[in-house]
Design goal:
TIM Barrel; Hex-like_dom2; 24% helix; Chitobiase, domain 2; eight-stranded parallel barrel; Immunoglobulin-like; hydrolase; 19 helices; EC 3.2.1.52; signal
Length: 838
């Protein structure tokens, strides 16, 4: 975040279309003030929104009685910084902590009459899209403390943009969407290591077809028969191997997760050495079917003769879900696991603990969920944490996973050959835990039990250190000098391990975070000063590697592997973070995200792997799925790594990241020579690269629908890159763009022709992101396409909004100057995209 003092402050005003009444006026009943308040937010026109833009909050009294604003304050969450000095003096906007702001009204008798409005301008750091706007608005009475959500609130999705800019953007989208003509869809997603198909020869699968399953693969056999009956209506008949046309055979000598799949005149033969291999062979068989064959109306299915020999490129193929910032239910997690399994992803990194929420029940420490999973406007009482990321004034019941929930998730994942890796954040991103243990401390201190109170305490009340975290918290870091910090971590790890054992899914790896500990921490802590003296440390920066070594030992003594974010393998000697070679062979597994083009850390994953760390490449530049797809103000998501569309995700070359770097996160061209001195993977480093992972941080993802739209179909591209073999365009020193475009076209065609239509059928349908439309004018024609193919575009030219009954575009339509054209995409389930107007 940009420091506030760097914001340029123009002269601002609050434009008032209202009447200020005298002292004798009566405000309305305070309990319903929020109900009669209408609020909207918009960005002012005529400015560069990415450089300290001016935003406007518009408050309207839509009721029938006066609203006395100075009796109230308006609170909201806002992910950007606000300049408190660049606002009309009748108002004040104060940053409270994290993303929480308070707008107060200074005039002593500030009354808004019915139907009147007040416009409040303020300056912020750069904006990219409408999800950067204020959310979670609530009114809080200054006398009673009662808070009520502002229900009638709208954030404008329209940014200041000229017609020329719109036309240029649509043309840019059209060029970006174009695929290579004459390239067929790849047969399976993810792409197998080796596949041969003969579409002139078919094996017909029909009701009553006999099947045989080796006794060791009974669960996988049940999975296949259940799929066929549920989605195709075809029921198989169990029989002996010699009489069967479908055979799932246990064989020797194949690598883990590998399989052979043969389809010929004799039928379907699956061979695997382990259960995962048999399971993935069935997923490939499902992918071979086109989407029409997934409908129950089919009486038979014709399968092309095929020979597939397949092994994954990487043993670690993962996805991280943040369920701490915004909670997502157990049922939604199970839906995500189903699609992970469909596309052969095998590691679920479960990030359910962060500053803004503790989302897992720990029976011995009930405060963690009683306080840490409870957001309230009464947070100053210490019995809850503050509203965040749009949670508002209302409390929501059980925003955490019970022990029973978590066990169900573990077993569900295990049945789909997915390992769940839980994450407990330390020392930073720990505010929910810190506040919960502080509440526990206060409780036992009131009862006179000092020993019990301090047992799990995570912060030092005498610590006067000043810091500001990446999410603008000033109190979110555990104190490494407290023995109770280690006792807390040991207890939590033990309890999570016990839950895994009870579920019959042993815990192997636990992630302890380690990311984004802000500068300035511990510098003025008396406890840390004593800790440094005890350990012969003269620089507070050296507390960090010591802490990492201590918690790694704690985890290893429990028979577990510790994983964490890249900072665990780094240290600061006074000139910024650098690789800490001392812990390279300590067994720590690192998730490396920082590779932003043009920022200097593009080779960090390789440097850490070369130093001996086991690395999971979690490329922010390609695989952070909370990023917006496009620089379109109506497109949701973060933007700090630039945009991440499907093409960008697919283009990730894990072992040769520099091969296709063209632009930085702002779109500026990069000079290839900038990477001349960057490290590449050594033979040792290549062995230490365990795999790749996608990640979704949920600050801007409050609903399950938004979650699925942000994840899919980009996660499918990650799966293809994680499983499929290294491709020719990834190798060497020069980028073969033609080869890349053909590979991407084959992937995109399979996705558009089949896979997304299947997503509309699985589990009642997934709400994947609808494709965006590109429009380009050439002569007297409008050329139309979408950013993944085979979706129908409908249009109108009479001012009405298109429906599925409107005229359909067939590549292009005639263009007449002066006419207004509106376009929409519809999928087979009837969902539609936003309308675009040309």
């Amino acid at each position: 975040m940009t420091n506030l003092k760097k914001i340029k402050r123009p002269l601002l005003y609050a434009g008032l279309s209202m009447t200020l009444l005298g002292q004798g006026a009566f405000a309305q009943d305070r309990g319903s003030s929020a109900d009669q308040l209408q609020v909207s937010w918009q960005v002012k026109e005529g400015q560069n929104i990415r450089k300290n833009p001016v935003s406007t909050l518009i408050l309207k009294n839509k009721g029938k009685s006066n609203l006395q604003l100075n009796d109230w304050s308006l609170w909201f969450n806002f992910i950007r910084s606000i300049d408190p000095n660049a606002i009309d003096k009748r108002f004040a906007i104060a940053h409270r902590n994290g993303d929480l702001f308070e707008l107060s009204f200074h005039r002593s008798n500030f009354i808004l009459k019915p139907q009147d409005t007040v416009h409040i301008d303020f300056v912020t750091t750069g904006l990219v899209n409408y999800t950067d706007g204020p959310i979670g608005l609530y009114l809080k009475n200054n006398r009673s403390g009662k808070a009520t959500d502002v229900v009638d609130y709208v954030a404008s999705k329209t940014a200041p943009q000229s017609e020329t800019e719109k036309v240029n953007y649509f043309a840019y989208k059209y060029d970006q969407n174009k695929l290579v003509d004459g390239v067929a869809a790849q047969p399976i997603i993810p792409m197998p290591a080796s596949i041969q198909t003969d579409n002139t020869k078919k094996f017909t699968l029909k009701a009553g077809t006999k099947y045989f399953v080796d006794s060791g693969f009974a669960k996988e056999g049940a999975f296949l028969t259940d799929f066929l009956s549920r989605y195709t209506g075809i029921h198989l008949s169990n029989s002996r191997e010699q009489e069967s046309s479908i055979r799932i055979i246990k064989t020797k000598g194949l690598k883990p997760e590998s399989y052979r799949l043969t389809i010929d005149a004799a039928g379907v033969r699956i061979e695997a050495t382990d259960n995962a291999g048999a399971f993935y062979a069935i997923q490939s068989l499902k992918s071979l079917l086109n989407h029409q064959q997934w409908h129950k109306t089919a009486k038979s299915i014709a399968l092309p003769h095929s020979r597939i020999e397949d092994s994954p490129r990487y043993g670690y193929r993962g996805f991280m879900l943040d369920a701490a910032r915004n909670f997502h239910s157990k049922d939604e997690v199970l839906r995500i696991l189903d699609l992970m399994a469909t596309y052969k992803l095998n590691k679920f990194h479960f990030h359910f603990i962060d500053d803004e929420g503790w989302r897992l029940e720990i029976p011995s420490l009930p405060e963690l969920t009683a306080v840490g999973a409870n957001r309230s406007t009464d947070f100053e009482s210490g019995k809850a944490i503050q509203p965040a990321y749009g949670s508002g004034a209302g409390t929501r019941s059980k925003q955490y996973y019970t022990v029973a929930d978590y066990m169900e998730i573990l077993r569900y994942a295990q049945a789909r050959h997915i390992e769940v890796i839980p994450e407990v954040e330390t020392p930073g991103h720990a505010r929910a835990a810190i506040k919960a243990m502080r509440a526990r401390y206060e409780h036992f201190m009131k009862n006179g039990n000092k020993q019990k109170a301090e047992e799990f305490l995570l912060d030092d009340a005498a610590d006067k250190s000043v810091y500001n975290s990446a999410q603008n918290w000033n109190d979110n870091v555990m104190n490494p000098a407290l023995p109770s910090t280690y006792h807390f971590l040991s207890t939590v790890v033990d309890e999570i391990k016990a839950i895994h054992d009870k579920a019959g899914v042993p815990l192997k790896i636990i992630d302890l975070g380690g990311d984004e500990t802000p500068s300035g921490v511990w510098e003025k802590s008396p406890k840390v000063a004593a800790f440094m003296q005890q350990n012969n440390i003269s620089n507070v920066l050296d507390v960090w590697p010591l802490y990492i070594a201590k918690i790694n030992k704690l985890v290893q003594e429990k028979g577990l592997t510790m994983s964490g974010w890249e900072e665990m393998g780094m240290r600061n000697k006074g000139k910024g973070m650098e690789v800490n070679a001392d812990l390279g062979t300590s067994g720590i597994q690192l998730n490396v995200w920082n590779n932003l083009p043009g920022q200097g850390q593009e080779d960090l994953a390789y440097r850490l792997a070369n130093a001996g760390y086991k690395v999971v490449y979690t490329s922010a530049a390609n695989n952070y799925l909370d990023m917006s797809w496009d620089r379109d103000f109506a497109d949701p998501g973060h933007s700090w790594v630039g945009t991440v569309n499907l093409n960008k995700t697919y283009s990730f070359a894990p072992e040769n990241f520099f091969i296709n770097l063209r632009k930085d996160d702002t779109g500026k061209d990069l000079v290839k020579e900038a990477y001349t001195n960057k490290e590449t993977l050594t033979a040792r480093g290549r062995q230490n690269l365990l795999g790749i992972k996608g990640a979704l941080w949920s600050e801007k993802v409050a609903t399950d629908q938004r979650l699925e739209e942000m994840i899919f179909p980009r996660l499918i591209a990650i799966a293809d890159r994680a499983w499929g073999p290294e491709q020719a365009w990834e190798k060497g020193d020069s980028f073969d763009e033609a080869a890349y475009r053909k590979a991407y076209t084959a992937f995109a065609r399979k996705l558009g022709e089949d896979e997304l239509r299947k997503l509309g059928l699985i589990n009642g349908g997934y709400r994947y992101r609808m494709p965006k439309i590109g429009v380009k004018q050439e002569n007297n024609q409008l050329l139309i396409n979408t950013d993944y193919p085979e979706f129908k575009v409908y249009y109108t030219d009479n001012g009405s909004v298109p429906t599925a009954q409107s005229k359909q575009v067939d590549g292009s339509i005639p263009y007449q100057q002066g006419k207004k054209y509106q376009f929409k995409v519809f999928d087979t389930a009837g969902r539609s995209s936003d309308v675009i107007i040309y």
